[in-house]
UniProtKB/TrEMBL annotation:
Residue positions where N6-(pyridoxal phosphate)lysine is found in the record: 231
Name used for this protein in its record: Serine hydroxymethyltransferase
Family designation: Belongs to the SHMT family.
Keywords: Amino-acid biosynthesis, Cytoplasm, One-carbon metabolism, Pyridoxal phosphate, Transferase
Alphabetical list of PANTHER family matching this protein: SERINE HYDROXYMETHYLTRANSFERASE (PTHR11680)
Residue positions binding (6S)-5,6,7,8-tetrahydrofolate: 122, 126-128, 246
Location within or outside the cell: Cytoplasm
The protein's role, per its UniProt record: Catalyzes the reversible interconversion of serine and glycine with tetrahydrofolate (THF) serving as the one-carbon carrier. This reaction serves as the major source of one-carbon groups required for the biosynthesis of purines, thymidylate, methionine, and other important biomolecules. Also exhibits THF-independent aldolase activity toward beta-hydroxyamino acids, producing glycine and aldehydes, via a retro-aldol mechanism.
Subunit structure: Homodimer.
Length: 421
């Protein structure tokens, strides 16, 4: 049953309610290792489903284009002040609808069409919106891309510096979607200063770890910080832009009216709740446990002969190259899903295979840490992964493991939902 319950939805639309119940059961029964997913608290769920979804609030606090903002303005102020305090920044904008528009706002604030932007190449672990060719950011601007070393799987900052000084980008992104190692924000900041560029740190994957003190912060180094509010931060599907006071006006104008209309007030409220939760001492313990679980899982996978990009992890994310296992990422991911382990196939650096059928798997430990798993559980998780990868076409084995995982996860409560008694 849901917390909060859904009696009106069940009565008004049983078909949709059944689909939601099915998804809740799936989330409860599986080991969820998708690095960008998590479980939010019942309080975040309640805020997301509140009557704030009824209100339109184009503009900013005290400067709206609609009346009736007596309670919406304080909600947004609360979220902004909590973000500033939690991340130690001078300015925060909590209105972006998601991470990609947040990144686009940085382009709109600082660049003109055709200007040069520098970011990590998508196949190396970067994000589409850091200047990749299929994204608007790679079509409207001139992209320069850096990667990782083939021998270490890590960024060579000397090469990044040489490239930045040669190409002179106006905007440099650090961060990405499949980077298992600590990002050196001071080094990127120094490179940006030398090149005369604005530095944007995309911390979408790392925000919860940074908030909990389990990863260094870009605050004080990056001019702009963009992030989603879910993933490791364990909030709703939204985003934020943070910055120094110097860039506040340009970024706010880029978000509204530059890219979007009225903010989603119910999401803003849920962000405020998540930020309050992230400021509590228990969240710091949670963030450090995420990293401890990822390191333990990486070690257990290495012991079973898996090849990990960069040899391990410093954060929540592990990137596996399956080349030595004789199976591609896509069939392995599908088999693992059938066996009760949810993750995603992923390109690895220098991957000879196509992006839609790559060599790798990406996994993360944020969601399973929310469910209460610890380092002691990681060898068992690795053993299940190993069994499936070695016999990914054995439907009997997949069914057996799925049953084992249902029983295993059944003893670990899921925030916001529980099986009917």
């Amino acid at each position: 049953m849901h917390q909060p319950a859904l009696p009106h939805l069940h009565a008004a639309d049983p078909a949709l309610a059944a689909l939601i119940e099915g998804e809740a059961t799936r989330q409860h029964d599986k080991i969820r290792l998708i690095a960008s997913e998590n479980y939010v608290s019942p309080a975040v769920l309640e805020a997301t489903g509140s009557v704030l979804t009824n209100k339109y609030s184009e503009g900013y606090v005290g400067r709206r284009y609609y009346e009736g903002q007596q309670f919406v303005d304080p909600v947004e102020e609360l979220a902004v002040e909590r973000a500033k305090a939690l991340f130690g920044v001078e300015h925060a904008n909590v209105q972006p609808y998601s991470g990609s528009p947040a990144n686009l706002a940085a382009y709109l604030a600082f660049l003109e069409p055709g200007d040069t932007v520098m970011g990590m190449a998508l196949p190396m672990g970067g994000h589409l919106t850091h200047g990749w060719s299929v994204s608007a950011t790679g079509r409207w601007f001139t992209p320069v891309r850096y990667g990782v070393r083939a021998d270490t799987g890590r960024v060579d900052l000397d090469e990044v510096r040489d490239l930045a000084l040669k190409e002179r980008p106006k905007l440099i992104f650090c961060g990405g979607t499949a980077i298992p190692r600590t990002i050196d924000y001071p080094a990127f900041a120094e490179i940006a200063r030398e090149a005369g560029a604005v530095l944007a740190a995309d911390i979408a994957h790392l925000a919860g770890l940074i908030a909990g003190g389990a990863h260094p912060s870009p605050a004080g180094h990056a001019d702009v910080i963009t992030t989603t509010t879910h993933k490791t931060l364990r909030g709703p599907r939204g985003a934020m832009i943070m910055s120094t006071a110097e860039h506040a006006a340009a970024l706010d104008k880029a978000v509204f009216p530059g890219l979007q209309g009225g903010p989603h007030n119910h999401t803003t409220a849920a962000i405020a709740v998540a930020l309050k939760e992230a400021a509590a001492p228990a969240f710091s313990a949670y963030a450090h446990q995420i990293v401890a679980n990822a390191k333990a899982l990486a070690q257990a996978l290495l012991e079973r002969g898996f090849d990990l990009v960069s040899g391990g992890t410093d954060n929540h994310l592990v990137l596996i190259d399956l080349t030595n296992k004789g199976v591609a990422g896509k069939p392995a991911a599908r088999a693992l899903d059938e066996a009760g382990i949810e993750l995603n196939h992923n390109t690895v650096p220098f991957d000879p295979r196509k992006p839609f059928d790559p060599s790798g798997l990406r996994l993360g430990t944020a969601a399973i840490t929310t469910r209460g798993l610890t380092e002691a559980d990681m060898p068992r998780v690795a053993a299940w992964i190993d069994e499936v990868v070695r016999a990914h076409e054995d439907t009997g084995l997949l069914s057996r493991i799925a049953a084992e995982i249902r029983e295993f996860m059944g003893a670990r409560p899921m925030p916001g939902w529980a099986p009917a008694p």
